[in-house]
UniProtKB/TrEMBL annotation:
The lineage of its organism: Eukaryota, Viridiplantae, Streptophyta, Embryophyta, Tracheophyta. It catalyses: L-seryl-[protein] + ATP = O-phospho-L-seryl-[protein] + ADP + H(+); L-threonyl-[protein] + ATP = O-phospho-L-threonyl-[protein] + ADP + H(+). It comes from Lupinus angustifolius (Narrow-leaved blue lupine). Keywords: ATP-binding, Kinase, Nucleotide-binding, Serine/threonine-protein kinase, Transferase. Residues 316-340 form the NAF domain. One of its GO terms (biological process) is signal transduction. One of its GO terms (molecular function) is ATP binding. SMART domains: S_TKc. This is non-specific serine/threonine protein kinase.
Length: 440
């Protein structure tokens, strides 16, 4: 982001300097023009991070552009980012809001996990402010309303972004914003017994003081603070808290030391001041923001009202995968042992297959009937079968999981009893049939 060169009130001609580098890897060995997994033609590199690169790609079936986030499994494992990737996929696949970038599907190969996401062509608000300077109050209000609507939505789903900033607010072809990058987000289950989150994360200039204090924080309240920083930057053209070192910047954040530009209206001053309240207990809430006079000026209708998200055809009727599964299912890098109880003496095997889910289940039931084994489908759809020996001597569980629109993964594992008998049934009867399906 950009900060004013001094503490004085910035004028319209204020020179801006970078506070945090936005570097993009210039050398990329990806062979552009190659069609990824037969579906997506990579066109150009958009950016890169610690363990992932983002590309613009073309869906060869529909002719529409998508964004492809390519995650390196090696770097994920080496640097301990597995839980982070798992959360990002889990969160994005269930969020459907007009101002949140969509996740369409997740693919996996031996070395990479690919998140296929909505391509937002207009760049981000960081670049817009850098190129144009401060935005008009009305345009700032338009973007801010969309941000708050999205934030209220994901908060209602127990998600806290924790890295809301201009860089992560993308602009679509209709000049509306899309919140992106949930890589640092948290969910309710991460809240400790004291009622707070504790992980220190985010972008320095946007951090709330309670994160810096390292005593725990409320995820919703720190998102409100970050939105206050965003609104100030949109309106002023520079960040409220700045300095030539992090120590100076953090001192100003702790003390709530910032100055409004001379053109700021009284109503906007009041709203931003309440959002950048250093006391999280008295800081304005999302619901209070949405009835604030500056926010509602001219009338406001939440865009989520009447919005009907499209159905997700990739997860219909079958159990969904998380990132642990995606990593361990891919051939050549089976790390499932990292996520299983080491005291479990049972067997687990997975096969990749292009056959229909229903057809796979039917074949499993055919084998069970021939071998006089009791087969019972899962109650919630056709994605799994429980097999039990006729004399109750073993239990084998067969799960079928959608990996992509074309591929499924068949997972077979022993149940709670008869591990050796179940392993024999799998090895001698069930596995040959499933291998036959997988090799078609």
């Amino acid at each position: 982001m950009y900060v004013a060169e001094n503490d004085a009130v910035a004028g319209e001609e204020e020179v801006l300097i970078p506070c945090i580098d936005k570097t993009t890897e210039t050398k990329d060995k990806t062979p552009f023009g190659v069609v990824l997994l037969g579906k997506y033609e990579l066109l150009k590199l958009l950016g890169s991070g610690a363990f992932a690169k983002v590309y613009q790609a073309l869906n060869v079936e529909t002719g529409k552009s998508v964004a492809v986030k390519a995650v390196s499994k090696k770097k994920v494992l080496k640097n301990g980012y597995t839980a982070q990737i798992e959360r990002e996929i889990s969160i994005m696949r269930r969020l459907r809001h007009p101002h949140i970038a969509k996740l369409f599907e997740v693919l996996a190969t031996k070395t990479k996990i690919y998140l296929i996401m909505e391509f937002v062509p207009g760049g981000d608000l960081y670049q817009k402010v850098a190129d144009e300077g401060r935005l008009t109050e009305n345009l700032s209000r338009q973007y801010f309303r969309q941000l708050i609507s999205a934030m209220k939505y994901f908060h209602s789903h127990g998600v806290f972004h924790r890295d809301l900033k201009l860089d992560n607010l993308l602009i679509d072809e209709n000049m509306n914003i899309k919140v992106s990058d949930f890589g640092l987000s948290a969910v309710n289950k991460q809240i400790r017994l004291d009622g707070f989150l504790h992980t220190t994360c985010g972008t320095p200039a946007y951090l709330a003081p309670e994160i810096l204090s390292k005593r725990g924080y409320d995820g919703a309240r720190i998102d409100v603070w970050s939105c206050g920083v965003v609104l100030f930057a949109l309106h002023a053209g520079y960040l409220p808290f700045n300095g030539y070192s992090y120590a100076v910047m953090y001192r100003k954040i702790f003390r709530g030391m910032f100055r409004f530009p001379k053109w700021t209206s009284c109503e906007l001053r009041n709203l931003i001041t309440r959002m950048l309240d250093t006391n999280p207990n008295t800081r304005i809430t999302v619901d209070e923001i949405m009835i604030d006079p500056w926010f509602t000026h001219g009338g406001f209708v939440d865009p989520v009202i009447g919005f009907e998200p499209e159905s997700d055809k990739y997860t219909a009727r079958v159990k969904e995968l998380n990132a642990f599964d995606l990593i361990s299912f891919a051939s050549g890098l089976d790390i499932s042992g990292l996520f299983m109880d080491p005291s479990d003496s049972g067997f687990v095997e997975r096969l990749l297959c292009m056959e229909r889910v229903e057809r796979i289940v039917e074949k499993v039931e055919e084998v069970a009937e021939i071998e006089r084994v009791v087969a019972k489908r899962e109650e919630n759809g056709c994605g799994g079968v429980r097999l039990e020996g006729s004399d109750g001597n073993f239990v084998v569980l067969v799960g079928v999981y959608r990996l992509t629109v074309d591929f499924v993964v068949i997972e077979v594992k022993s149940g709670e009893r008869g591990v050796e008998s179940g392993a024999r049934f799998w090895r001698d009867k069930l596995r040959p049939m499933l291998i036959g399906l997988a090799e078609k």
